[in-house]
Amino acid sequence: MDGFFKQLNGEEPTDLYQMVLTEMERPLLEVVMRESGNNQSRAARMLGLNRNTLRKKLRTHGLGR
């Protein structure tokens, strides 16, 4: 994040929270699904999400079945 702000050269970013979530969510889901053996119930527990919410996120990122 420090590097990101340095590149902005004093400009103020907008929608920073959403940008970070967008960049981090897919890799997080990929790792958790791999570590859970692609078991959505287990992955949802690991993430602290409802399984239906996880399924929706997986579909959004093209990671669903």
What does this structure look like?
It is built from four helices and no strands. It starts with a helix and ends in a 5-residue tail after the last helix. It has a domain at 31-65. The protein is mainly α and 65 residues long. It is elongated and about 45 Å long.
> What is the average of the pLDDT values?
93
Number of helices: 4
* Gap between N and C termini: 33 Å
Indicate the proportion of strand residues: under 5%
Oligomer: single chain
| Helix proportion range | 55-70%
- Unreliable runs: none
Q: What's the gyration radius in Å? A: 15 Å
Q: What is the H/E string?
A: HHHH
What's a concise summary of this model?
This protein is mostly helical and 65 residues long. The protein has a domain of 35 residues.
Outline the secondary-structure elements.
Elements: H1 2-8, H2 16-35, H3 40-47, H4 51-60
